[in-house]
């Protein structure tokens, strides 16, 4: 229960933090979108520029404040607002209200105050009392000063009660306002120390983070700390909602005026119809909202934040539907807004005319939709391959992924058909169509590979050509995608030279040429070379077939299946399926069992003895049947040479030196046979007396 309450409290603080930062974005957006009149003289122009710069600077500082400092700033701000409201009410009451006759002049055309005198006075006194108490509470004033401030706010109303002359009442209201303003200035001046230390702390913190972590982590930390995406999202939705309410109110007012001018009925049915909008009016309102929703850089950022939220939840829904748990696939909420913002900057969306802006936004949305579909295919393809390669037989696991793949094929076809049916061929339509065709090709390649793996799963025999077929299918798809990348580069170059060239478009073309053309060609060529090298290595290894496989009482150490048709022998005498070993050699050039190099020269592979997967050599059958050598004979059956005294001593010294080796350096076998050419003679080509060194006894045998 306590944890739930704490979580609710944290969420409430987060919502309040975002709500308090949104007005800063509104102020900055209003300053950037305000009309600038250059014909007011240089003094007026400098004053306007100074006001704009100060407004943007103060709003930016408030936007970047910490949560505690932000709450304190708004506490002082609301206290100042309450003081200003109290002063304005006193001035309005003394200048426009006659208490005894209850006569007043309506302000701004609204008649909000009651007409009778006592009710009017009591209402204003209650409002001023609430404002005074709120002002005192927010500024945290002491008891004596608090009473004086409330008394100062109430004095002009008392002047109305005792019927002071109008000039005296206005003078009292002016002095009351000056006293309240002086008190506010003193309170704010006393908090300048807090403001100085807060700014100094922020500066030191930023400098420390910049020196330790760098600019990138500093920006990321600030981005998360102020919840900038949420601030932009709330800003855009609030702005669009307010504009929608204003437009609906204007439409209803125009309808009412047109009905009054034509003498229309004013019954309840006509009022009910006034709340309903026709399709044409609704479309016009929606178009105006969309146009005004991207008329500046901040509104484009806000729309990007909204797109980020929609794409994020869409990606999570698709991941849950197909049963994927990959963290990398949750980046759709980041990729979609970045791409939308880049397209907006590339096409100059916010600087276009309203009609052109709507058309350009629609085209950008089509490009964004195709990019999102490509990303969704990247999410579903690993799941599809995993299900097919693991031979999962549950239809419930395959159906969601296949359904999404089918949708990824149908949606681009439907989009291309609709666009070609309504628009003529141009560079934009060509780009969208190319992306749609490329997506359909990717889906076909994925489904083809999926079908190959599923066919291999239902087969009882190892399909050694499966890897080749998968490689051919994917290579064909990659080559076609590479050609599409080259074509799109040409389309972008044509657009930049003859339609709308910009620096951002040039940068995007360079990035496209690097990532989608150069790197793709480089990776494809690297894959081809690795595959050709792996095939060369596999073909250089000896192969066992037929009756020879019966002597291998083991399975492939990679797939744990028996050798049905053939097996490849590595130089370290381990057996594997050719297909399994080739997949391994794509990754590294060592044996999966002992990590020795697999591809060696032909002359170094001079032993063809059989071995098990432990690497031990099996003795030939005739040698095994011959039995141990007779006394006085060596391993070849020849008479053993007699050792002279000095030769025996040298052999004993050599054996003793070998026996003193650390046991950790010896291999973990029952015995180690040393090569006769290397160890057979020492000290004048005298053969040593010992042939074997036993690890267990660490002694020599005669």
From TrEMBL:
It is found in: Endoplasmic reticulum membrane. The keyword Transmembrane applies. Keywords: Endoplasmic reticulum, Membrane, Metal-binding, Transmembrane, Transmembrane helix, Zinc, Zinc-finger. Residues 615-627, 647-660 have a biased composition (Low complexity). Residues 661-679, 688-702 have a biased composition (Acidic residues). Pfam families: TRC8_N (PF13705), zf-RING_2 (PF13639). Residues 556-595 form the RING-type domain. It comes from Amphiprion percula (Orange clownfish). This is E3 ubiquitin-protein ligase RNF139. GO terms for cellular component: Derlin-1 retrotranslocation complex. The lineage of its organism: Eukaryota, Metazoa, Chordata, Craniata, Vertebrata. GO terms for biological process: ERAD pathway; proteasome-mediated ubiquitin-dependent protein catabolic process. GO terms for molecular function: ubiquitin protein ligase activity; zinc ion binding. It is a multi-pass membrane protein.
């Amino acid at each position: 229960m306590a944890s739930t309450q704490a979580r609710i409290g944290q969420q409430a603080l987060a919502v309040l933090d975002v709500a308090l930062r949104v007005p800063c974005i509104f102020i900055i957006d209003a300053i950037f979108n305000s009309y600038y009149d250059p014909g007011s003289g240089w003094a007026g122009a400098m004053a306007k520029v100074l006001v704009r710069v100060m407004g943007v600077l103060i709003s930016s500082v408030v936007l970047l404040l910490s949560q505690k400092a932000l709450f304190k700033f708004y506490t002082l701000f609301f206290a100042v607002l309450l003081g200003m409201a109290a002063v304005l009410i006193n001035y309005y009451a003394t200048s426009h209200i006659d208490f005894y006759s209850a006569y007043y002049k309506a302000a701004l055309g609204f008649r909000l105050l009651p007409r009778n005198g006592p009710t009017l006075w009591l209402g204003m006194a209650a409002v001023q009392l609430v404002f005074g108490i709120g002002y005192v509470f927010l500024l945290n004033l002491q008891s004596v000063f608090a009473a004086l401030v409330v008394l100062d706010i109430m004095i002009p109303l008392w002047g109305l009660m005792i019927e002071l002359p109008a000039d005296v009442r206005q003078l009292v209201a002016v002095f009351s306002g000056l006293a309240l303003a002086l008190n506010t200035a003193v309170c704010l001046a006393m908090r300048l120390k807090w403001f100085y230390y807060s700014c100094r702390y922020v500066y030191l913190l930023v400098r420390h983070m910049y020196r330790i972590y760098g600019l990138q982590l500093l920006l990321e930390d600030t981005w998360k700390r102020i919840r900038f995406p949420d601030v932009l999202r709330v800003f855009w939705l609030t702005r669009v909602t307010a504009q929608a309410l204003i437009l609906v109110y204007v439409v209803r007012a125009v309808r009412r005026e047109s009905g009054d001018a034509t003498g229309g009925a004013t019954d309840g049915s006509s009022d009910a119809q006034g709340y309903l909008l026709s399709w044409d009016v609704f479309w016009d309102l929606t178009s105006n909202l969309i146009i005004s929703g991207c008329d500046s850089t901040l509104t484009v950022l806000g729309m990007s934040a909204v797109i980020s939220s929609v794409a994020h939840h869409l990606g999570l829904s698709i991941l849950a539907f197909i049963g994927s748990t990959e963290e990398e696939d949750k980046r759709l909420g980041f990729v979609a807004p970045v791409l939308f913002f880049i397209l907006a900057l590339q096409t100059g969306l916010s600087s276009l005319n309203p009609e052109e802006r709507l058309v350009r936004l629609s085209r950008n949305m089509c490009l964004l939709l195709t990019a999102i579909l490509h990303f969704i295919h990247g999410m579903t393809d690993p799941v599809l391959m995993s299900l097919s390669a693991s031979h999962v037989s549950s239809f419930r696991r395959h159906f969601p992924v296949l359904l999404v793949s089918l949708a990824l094929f149908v949606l681009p076809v439907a989009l291309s058909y609709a666009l070609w049916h309504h628009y003529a061929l141009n560079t934009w339509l060509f780009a969208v169509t190319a992306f749609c065709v490329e997506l359909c090709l990717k889906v076909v390649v994925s489904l083809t590979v999926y079908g190959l793996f599923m066919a291999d799963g239902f087969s009882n025999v190892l399909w050694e050509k499966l890897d080749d077929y998968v490689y051919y299918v994917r290579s064909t798809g990659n080559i076609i995608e590479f050609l599409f990348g080259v074509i799109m580069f040409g389309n972008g170059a044509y657009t930049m030279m003859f339609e709308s060239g910009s620096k951002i478009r040039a940068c995007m073309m360079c990035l496209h040429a690097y990532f989608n053309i150069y790197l793709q060609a480089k990776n494809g060529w690297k894959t081809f070379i690795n595959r050709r090298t792996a095939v060369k290595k596999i073909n250089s290894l000896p192969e066992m077939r037929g009756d020879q496989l019966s002597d291998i009482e083991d399975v492939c150490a990679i797939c744990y299946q028996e050798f049905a048709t053939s097996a490849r022998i590595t130089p370290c005498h381990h057996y594997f399926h050719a297909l399994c070993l080739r997949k391994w050699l794509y990754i590294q050039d060592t044996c999966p069992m002992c990590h020795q190099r697999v591809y060696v020269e032909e002359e170094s592979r001079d032993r063809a003895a059989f071995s098990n997967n432990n690497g031990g050599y099996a003795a030939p059958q005739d040698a095994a049947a011959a039995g141990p050598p007779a006394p006085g004979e060596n391993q070849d059956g020849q008479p053993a040479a007699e050792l002279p005294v000095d030769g025996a001593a040298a052999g004993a010294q050599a054996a003793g030196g070998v026996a003193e080796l650390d046991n950790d350096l010896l291999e973990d076998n029952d015995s180690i046979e040393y090569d006769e050419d290397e160890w057979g003679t020492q000290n004048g080509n005298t053969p040593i007396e010992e042939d074997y060194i036993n690890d267990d006894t660490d002694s020599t045998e005669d």
